[in-house]
Amino acid sequence: AFRSPAGGQAVALPVPAPLLLALRCLLLGGAAAALLPYGASRGDRRLPDGDDESSGAVRLRRPLPFYEKPAFFAISLQIGTNGIISTQDFPRETQYVDDDFPTDFPAIAPFLSDIDTSGGKGTIYYREDDSPEVLGQVTHLIHAGFPSTAAAAFAPTHAFITTWENVAAYEEVSRSLEPSKKVNTFQAVLAYDDSDTYALFLYPPDGLQFFGTRPKESYNVQLELPARVGFSRGETDYLKREGPYYSVTSNEQSVKNLYQTSNSGIPGVWAFHIGSTSQLDNVMPAKVGEKPSEERSLGTLASTLSSSPTEQNVLDADYPDEIIDYAEPFYDENEDDDIVYLPMGPTQQVRDAYRGLHASYNEPRHSGASLDLELESTLPYPASSPHPSYPDVKSVLPYPVMKEGPSLASPSSEDDVESSQETGVRTPPSLETSDSLLELTTEGLPENPEKDHIQPYPDSGAAPSEMDIYPEHEVILQGYPENAPPFNRGRQVVGVDEDVSFNPDVFTYNPSSKETCEWNHSQCSQHAFCTDYATGFCCHCLPKFYGNGRHCLPEGAVHRLNGKVSGNLLVGQTPVRFSAVDLHAYIVANDGRAYTAISHIPQLAARALMPLTPIGGLFGWLFALEKPGYENGFSITGAKFTHNLKVTFYPGQETVQITQTADDLGPENHLSIKTHIQGQVPFIPENFTVHIAPYKELYHYSHSAVTSTAHRQYSLTLGRINRTFAYQLHQNITYQDCAPARQRWAVPAVQQLSVDRVFALYSDGERVLRYAIANQIGSSEGDDPGPVNPCYDGTHACDTTARCQPGAGLAYTCECTAGYRGDGRDCVDVDECAESFHRCGHGSVCINSPGSYRCECLSGYQLVVDRHSCVPIPPPSNPCEDGRHTCASTDRARCVHHGGGSFSCVCLAGYTGNGHNCSDVDECAEGRCHQAATCSNTPGSFSCRCEPGYHGDGIQCTPETTPRLTPCEQERHYPQPGIVPHPGRHEPQCDEQGNYRPLQCHGGSGFCWCVDAAGREIAGSRRPPGTAPPQCGTPEPTQRPQTMCERWRQSLLEHYGGSPREDQYVPHCDALGNFHPLQCHGNSGHCWCVDESGREVQGTRSEPGVPPPCLPSLAPPTVRPSPRPDVTPPATGTFLLYAQGQQIGYLPLNGTRLQKEAAKTLLSLHGSIVVGLDYDCREEMVYWTDVAGRTVNRASLEPGAEPETIINSGLMSPEGLAVDHFRRTMFWTDSGLDKIERARLDGSERRVLFDADLVNPRAIAVDAVRGNLYWTDWNREAPKIETSTVDGANRRILVNKDIGLPNGLTFDPFSKLICWADAGTKKLECTLPDGTGRRVVQNNLNYPFSIVSYANHFYHTDWRRDGVIAVNKDSGLLTDEYLPEQRSHLYGITAVYPYCPGGKVHLVY
């Protein structure tokens, strides 16, 4: 563009393409992106620092075109902290910052993520610029990306420049984690004139150091959402239809590509045409170079699935992407273990004959529209060609069929089927034999006892209206491929048999004493009131809310559900396992729509699960549209229930069981669901589409249970292939009702669920399985044939956040639900915080959320029971700081605070006593100096000086006439001055003449190297441990067996996983494998002396910084070790004790529920690794094994009790431990010595029970009443579980098949079963003491280590979760979990009862 000499407007002149390309290369070359000038010196304004700030409306000097002409001209822009620009006010960040595109509002997003600039963490600048210098730079960059289009003539008149400089990701405040130092710098430039707008996103080299942010409310779930980059038009009209949008990034790798690649030919420079007064359907990206982008635009989805012109549809056209279709947002540290494919069977040949099917999704958000699910055909028709008519296709049905309209003709042979080539469609070779692939699977379908009738479409010979051809590049979502025959539109009424096997009273309860609202109103929802009845209290939802009283949701609001899905399936003949994949559901309650998406599910399993719509159908029943006088599921069960479903497929008789468990409402009223799928399902080949006809289903209601039994059909279609199959389902939903109000229970005994639309799709590209269902709940007698009020069939025009209020006839009104305001057809969120409609009290902050708000406490405050008020957190009392302790003076003792008001006193080094009274130790009287030295005692210390005629440090004195030591001997015995002996110091090896040996090896690290005569290392000769030592001119030392020190070291390293932390103890061995006299505990500074067997010399443990002298020629010093903390006494009642490294933890139980808030440390054991753990109920003492100290220990649970070592010799790696409280004996396993031993509880009468045929013994359990002993051996070659009597007689193998790594073992005294947790098979199993009756309780464990049984639950420690997991014995469900605040591996676990189990004892001495 050139300006005229008269200074008029810029004139665009044509530029030859080669010249323009050469100019671009000359000006820009291959250089990386550089930001345009910015900062205060350029007149930039600065956005206020904070987590969610905005600039307010920045008025532009001239309007900016955004998208196409029918859209609008932006007269102002708003800049947001979170890497985004908009033409209007931003909603609250929780409404958009963690969601995928599209947004509900106009958005220009160079890096949409949760950014925080508070506390000086970066700066955000913005300005509008019309200087020739800047406009010239912008023009060159745009022309670089659009060299051969109309953009070559574009000359901007204004540019709006926004720069995010060194901004950081938002992080939760944590005491345990250091703040991240990663920062990002990037820039967005909007260049425009009167007719067009172009955007530039600039990412300088290494300008992006983080690529996503963690959602604020992710809690303990470790997930990070990749940044979103792109553009969104926002909602286009009052019906909130979704406008076009364009997304550049879809996962973390695509974010990383932003500064490494481009679409303009210049790394880090991204150019887009984003607005025009002429035709511009969607954002147009530059085409020079590669780009990791995904383009989506909204097609015209006008066609419906209605069978008559007057029938109005109730489902939108697709899935709500921004709610449930995340781009790789969830991560699993064990992803490789979650999906397991075992060897495939003969079905592989069938699968190879089919190709994948692709689907994309977006979401119109208005109510009352239709849901058209359209799949992009793999056999596309030319855009201009008419849609072909459908040939007659044979329909295979298992029982008699009632038809509406003419019947479908059945060809007698393949020759009767019209060739697809006659209609201009090419048939892939794989389809030539595809008809036979399903032929065998349709034989032998059982006759349906209910005589259900299928009502297919009339065979008009033409395509249904949904099959219209759409322009290229538009998103097409339909329920079956374009060449598929029409399927049943009729509604199928399913007869229901009563399933007598279900127990309707599973969860009823009968309180022993009447409870009243006065003390229990907090158990009700905040949107409920409490009512007292004759036998107790019940909760009831307030008007305009619905639920069971304990959980209430606003009527008319949309709801979200989140959860995890795990499965162990046999698909055809191929096993498939998946664990904790993500489930999200989106519910439009005011018209009964339910959308469900399961992401990252294995492809083979996802296709096979498409017919199982009951997985998403549960949510349809929960939130079904209610007819007058009837209630949906959530109104009855609330947010706590269990859904059990058994499905049998025909003709193959495959059976699958599904369990779905809901456990309360989470933040923002999100329901949490856990789903487990177990069994066999039929294989579905690729490219086949699943069709499920609308149906009706009867549900039977009683107190605490809902049951249903039904038959359903589904068809598989591909081209001309159309095969129909069936399955039978039995389901029950159990929940806890409120017994005192049962007399007032008004729910009909039978209700009918009508499903008007049901779709199932799987997207190969996104790996997402989706279900969409429209539901109504009403009378079992059927609907009144007369007109239906739109509120009752979902055809109203109310907003998705509005309640539909029926009037007379077909009249109705719309009323925004609680937390929203508007006319009912268009509702907006009420900001209760800004408008002071909240109840948050002193010390709290109001946080707005869609339709509601929550109160959060300021730092130093905690929320009280009303969930609105905050009270100050009382500061912890520290007697050591406030002077309330009773320790000796600070020059003699130190006070150690243990939390709360507890403390202990420790005498300083050089003093002895109990900490309250400390007296000086006279080291001279103990002979601490050499015999030829003079000793001088001082308070807390002493000094030594060699007498005349001797030289040395006083600890060692040598006559001056003694021959001088060689350099090697000097270095070995007398390190350089100032160097304190420590385990990591290398002691050189000397030969008989005192010279350096040519080969030197480090006793601690295992490295070896060669040295010269002066002891200097020869460069290049160093070898790491585990490799052959270097050849140093002397014969290679012969291999010797491992010493005791080396074996113990190896055993501990295996426990630490090969790489110990800095604070963990590893024994230090010298070059010959002997124990180094001085041993220290990691980096703690605590050191002690050991004898030749590695046992600690009593009285030598020192304080940090003062290692004791441990030379063999000296008597041991008498520096006393610091006393260990005493036992913190537990409360009365039943509780769990668990081992966690250097401590034993206390976790109380309330019934069988974990009281996590009352958990605490029972006993701290510095330098220990506690593995085995058990409890003696007679003397109330806890026993444990310590693999670091190689000891067996015990401690009383009485206040102030201290640990006592009862076995401290002859142990290598003591692990499992079991206490027989009847016989007053204990048993333990030693995986280092491969032994099982027994002793009295005081350590006496010790003897070996077994020392043969053991490889890795670990867990051990005892049946004290019957006198039987059980143990596991996790020998990887032949794992087994064995048993004997408690005196070692009658040893035999109990289990040795189908086990892998049996870590945990427990004897259940209630069921008399022996049960084990296997980290190899991931199963929890039980068997009778004779090995019969084996059954699986849970088959989806993570990495269990130890297990204990109590009442109707198992509790096991888990190394993958680093916590305690509760498992219900009857259902196998994981019911609870406790994760200690300090995360590290948990080992043994035991249960402590307030009583001793009784029974007749068979003594076997």
Automatic annotation (TrEMBL):
Check the record and name the SUPFAM superfamilies matching this protein: EGF/Laminin, GFP-like, Growth factor receptor domain, Thyroglobulin type-1 domain, YWTD domain
- Domain NIDO: from-to ranges: 110-277
Q: Where in the cell is it found?
A: Secreted, Extracellular space, Extracellular matrix, Basement membrane
Q: Return the Pro residues bias intervals.
A: 1105-1124
Q: Which Gene3D superfamilies match?
A: Green fluorescent protein, Laminin, Thyroglobulin type-1, TolB, C-terminal domain
InterPro entries associated with the record: 6-blade_b-propeller_TolB-like, cEGF, Cueball_EGF_LRP_Nidogen, EGF, EGF-like_Ca-bd_dom, EGF-type_Asp/Asn_hydroxyl_site, EGF_Ca-bd_CS, G2_nidogen/fibulin_G2F
Tell me the superkingdom of the source: Eukaryota
Oxidoreductase: is it a keyword of this entry?
no
Extract one GO molecular function annotation from the record. Answer: Wnt-protein binding
* Keywords in alphabetical order: Basement membrane, Calcium, Cell adhesion, Disulfide bond, EGF-like domain, Extracellular matrix, Glycoprotein, Repeat, Secreted, Signal
Q: Which GO terms describe its biological process?
A: canonical Wnt signaling pathway; cell-matrix adhesion
Residues making up the signal peptide according to the UniProt record: 1-33
Q: What is this protein called?
A: Nidogen 2
